TrEMBL record, chain A:
UniProt similarity note: Belongs to the Casparian strip membrane proteins (CASP) family.
Gene source species: Brassica napus
Localization annotation: Cell membrane
The organism's taxonomic lineage, starting at the top: Eukaryota, Viridiplantae, Streptophyta, Embryophyta, Tracheophyta
Pfam families, per database record: CASP_dom (PF04535)
Protein name per Swiss-Prot or TrEMBL: CASP-like protein
Family matches, as PANTHER family: CASP-LIKE PROTEIN 1U1 (PTHR36488)
Keywords for this protein: Cell membrane, Membrane, Transmembrane, Transmembrane helix
Membrane topology annotation: Multi-pass membrane protein
Automatic annotation (TrEMBL), chain B:
Subcellular locations according to the entry: Cell membrane
A Gene Ontology term for the protein's cellular component: plasma membrane
Organism: Brassica napus
Protein's UniProt name: CASP-like protein
Keyword tags: Cell membrane, Membrane, Transmembrane, Transmembrane helix
NCBIfam families: A_tha_TIGR01569 (TIGR01569)
Cited Pfam families: CASP_dom
Coiled coil listed as a keyword: no
Transmembrane parts of this sequence: 12-31, 51-72, 84-107, 133-152
Length: 198, 164
């Protein structure tokens, strides 16, 4: 009973606006995560030794390209934000396209694939950042966040945005799947396609 | 008749996914190696890395869930819930494999820019077992994606073959 009420609520026209709003939020979250991590770079000079009385300085850079997990993070977030942009465009401008069940199915499947993609990317970056922040005594890996604090802060911001994107994509995917049960056109122009009541 | 074969196919898929997740869990938990060089003896266990602990926990959750769904009766109303839970389990699987793979890649190749040395040279058997666990986890993931598509098809009837 509750499930059919939920499905009915998911296919009314008000839920179309909710879906659009969620997609806009997910698009902005994943895009900002990709941009913040993509521009993440910090250069610092350290004193590595002393030759006589003069200190010897060396310059080190921390870039996101050094870690494959962060490269995957940037690419995956860019792909998911592109998917959301495409879905928003289809939603707003695709009203004239034939509204078949194939369209709903492809939207649902694409949403599911993108949910898995962004959850994988966010988690990989999160665990690598955890190693970078706390180090690992057993493997003798030093932490890097005490030396490159700004790099770590920007990375943390990108991670938070990506996890917000994960939650949003999960909700969007659930709504898309429930729209498969009762296809309902989202355009407000005509009172067309009355939904089939269970 | 076709429905029965489809149901049996789905049950076989779920049993295979349960087996793969359980195998990944067991192989990761039993991966342990003790190596000594100079006067230092180090032991590599799966609890050393947070990502491997998460992998074990995620695969345990997926195994228990698959085992419970195997016994769900055919006409239960919970099948609609199974669709969403399958999606959540697929997300758990991808995230755990991705995290474990990211950390294992650093363990195998190291990260020259951060000064992290690879550890697979000292504990090759541990690395091999972790690789095996990751492969089993990947098989479980593929099976779960197929299961998700099947549950979507059977519960929601996306092609509207049944006029209600």
């Amino acid at each position: 009973m509750a499930v059919s009420k939920l499905v009915l609520a998911a296919t009314s026209t008000k839920s179309c606006k909710v879906l659009l709003g969620l997609r806009v939020l997910a698009f902005s979250a994943t895009l900002s995560a990709a941009i913040v991590m993509g521009l993440n770079k910090e250069t610092k000079t350290f004193v590595v030794g002393n030759v006589g009385n003069t200190p010897v300085k060396a310059t080190f850079t921390a870039k996101f390209q050094h870690t494959p997990a962060f490269v995957f993070f940037v690419v995956a977030n860019a792909m998911v934000s592109f998917h959301n942009m495409l879905m928003i465009a289809v939603h707003l401008f695709g009203g004239e396209m034939e509204f078949t069940s194939f369209r709903l199915l492809s939207v649902a499947i694409l949403d599911m694939l993108n949910v898995t993609l962004i959850s994988a990317a966010a988690n990989a970056a999160a665990f690598i950042s955890e190693v970078g922040k706390n180090g690992n005594k057993h493997a003798r890996w030093d932490k890097i966040c005490d030396r490159f604090a700004t790099y770590c802060d920007h990375g943390a911001g990108a991670l938070i945005a990506a996890f917000a994107g994960v939650v949003l994509m999960l909700i969007i995917s659930a709504i898309s799947i429930s729209r498969l049960a009762q296809p309902n056109k989202c355009s407000s122009s005509t009172a067309a396609a009355p939904s089939v009541l269970p | 008749m076709a429905k029965l074969t489809k149901r049996i196919g789905a049950l076989v898929l779920r049993l295979a996914a349960f087996g793969a997740a359980l195998a990944a869990l067991i192989v990761m938990v039993t991966s342990r190696e003790r190596a000594s060089f100079f006067a230092v003896s180090l032991e590599a266990k799966y609890t050393d890395m947070a990502a491997f602990k998460y992998f074990v926990i995620a695969n345990a959750v997926v195994s228990v869930y698959s085992f419970l769904v195997l016994f769900l009766p055919k006409e239960s109303l919970l099948w609609k819930f199974v669709v969403v839970l399958d999606l959540v389990m697929t997300m758990l699987l991808t995230s755990s494999i991705s995290a474990a793979l990211a950390v294992a890649q650093v363990g195998k190749k190291g990260n020259a820019n951060a000064g992290w040395l690879p550890i697979c040279g000292q504990v090759p058997k541990f690395c091999d077992q972790v690789t095996g666990a990751l492969i089993a986890g990947f098989v479980a993931l593929v099976l779960y994606v197929l299961l998700l598509l099947y549950s979507l098809h059977s519960v929601v009837d996306p092609f509207l073959l049944q006029k209600s």
